[in-house]
Amino acid sequence: MLKPLGDRVLVEVIEETEQKTAGGLFVPDTAKQKSQRGKVIAVGSGKTLDNGTKVAVEVSVGDTVHFAKYGGTEVTLDGKEYSLFSERDLLAIEG
Amino acid sequence: MLKPLGDRVLVEVIEETEQKTAGGLFVPDTAKQKSQRGKVIAVGSGKTLDNGTKVAVEVSVGDTVHFAKYGGTEVTLDGKEYSLFSERDLLAIEG
Amino acid sequence: MLKPLGDRVLVEVIEETEQKTAGGLFVPDTAKQKSQRGKVIAVGSGKTLDNGTKVAVEVSVGDTVHFAKYGGTEVTLDGKEYSLFSERDLLAIEG
Amino acid sequence: MLKPLGDRVLVEVIEETEQKTAGGLFVPDTAKQKSQRGKVIAVGSGKTLDNGTKVAVEVSVGDTVHFAKYGGTEVTLDGKEYSLFSERDLLAIEG
Amino acid sequence: MLKPLGDRVLVEVIEETEQKTAGGLFVPDTAKQKSQRGKVIAVGSGKTLDNGTKVAVEVSVGDTVHFAKYGGTEVTLDGKEYSLFSERDLLAIEG
Amino acid sequence: MLKPLGDRVLVEVIEETEQKTAGGLFVPDTAKQKSQRGKVIAVGSGKTLDNGTKVAVEVSVGDTVHFAKYGGTEVTLDGKEYSLFSERDLLAIEG
Amino acid sequence: MLKPLGDRVLVEVIEETEQKTAGGLFVPDTAKQKSQRGKVIAVGSGKTLDNGTKVAVEVSVGDTVHFAKYGGTEVTLDGKEYSLFSERDLLAIEG
For a surface tag, which of A72, B2, D2, E28 has the fewest beta carbons within 10 Å of its beta carbon? Predict the structure, then answer.
């Protein structure tokens, strides 16, 4: 297993199928940054504030979270791909 | 449903029709950044200050808010598009 | 009406006529950034400091303020154009 | 009159004649950033620190100050040109 | 031996073989940043917070850590290559 | 005279002759940033910390200081050239 | 002699011979930033934290330190070359 450091969160990304045109081109409907979903596998012990206090991570193992697509760092564990995020890069919990 | 994290705010963007010329071109009257409107669907628990205090988000569910166009991250929920903003990216409440 | 968030200030910009040459070209006399004037329409509740204290905005409704030209975000309200500024982007009060 | 906001300082720039070669070209002797002089016309109430304390501006009305050339924002008041600076952009007092 | 300074961590990188195509080209499956693994050889005394408190490093000698590939600074010691990281550049502990 | 503001330091730069090749080209032996020397002419009252405390400048009038070449802002006083530095841009005192 | 200011450290760089191919080209084995070694000649009095406390520099005169190659500012003293670093740019102590 992998124990995230600080406010890092280990996430198993849920791959979504992208909409393509008949001709095979992906047509984005806006210029906005898109989000992606994933399942929280492990969380770090939290972030240390400038006054020395540790703040626990707001998400829990098992949560389905949303984050900006292409964010985070990919890590391979036992042949499987995961992503590691700082908690500030997670946007919302689903459910 | 989607529970925003930290000071994030979930917004349903209100699409406005842009003014075009007879020839079909959009003619901006200034070089300024434009705002867009949306309805607040859900709010996070707030931002944690460096002294450990949590500050509640200033907007509430149901508020119509203004924000810089093309800001935020798009998220799809049950086939519908929303945007997630940090509270600092929201500019004003209408009404 | 529009209630600015945080230390935002809603301003009705006063359009000034720019000086042009006989040939129709605008000739700037320096390379410096220029200011523009506007009237304060509404102010936010202020900025929250890192120690949790809220600091009221220094300008009041009705003030004529100066700010860097092309700054702020344009917002349309009831068919009329306004600009939203962070208080730190306002430079001076006239009068 | 113009009342500068925060730690802003209103300055009347003193135009200096630049040295040119016989052929009319300006020849800088170093690659360094140059300073310019001006007279303080009005000062803001000061900067608010993160602990909520307000720190008064170090310069006074009437002071001749030095600042980096081309810095500040130009403002026109009663047909006359002034510049608005943040106090941190002022370098020294003459006299 | 090498004693890392501040919150630096000395790591012996574990080289992984990259997957290549028959034609010899490496084919990345996503645009995401990849992680790499290494073994902690030595840790610094920790980071000093703005209030003067020293916070101990979260990893220990012997830990297998993950970090963003190509991060850190390479150092040669007794003919062997190591990498020095700031603790904030370490993402997770394996095990 | 010139009274530097905040943590500014007024320095009279000591011009050094650069080594050139027989062919007249300057040949730097490394890609590193070079330092230059100067004499402290005047110092500001110091920097105000975020807690409101003023910290006196570490250098004194008459000190010979080293700083990164081409740093600072040039100021002309009574036809003579000086440079104004923030104290953090001074690297060392000679002697 | 040279007394470094703040958290600056004066270092005498130890030049290492770089490995070259038979053809004379230097062949780096990774894209990583390389470190270089040097001997500490003098240290500053330390860094002042935002709460006014001074934190002593962690390295001592005589230490052999590692730092990122090409970092620091070169200074010539009595015809000899040294480098001045901020303490945060030093990575580790050897020995």
Answer: E28
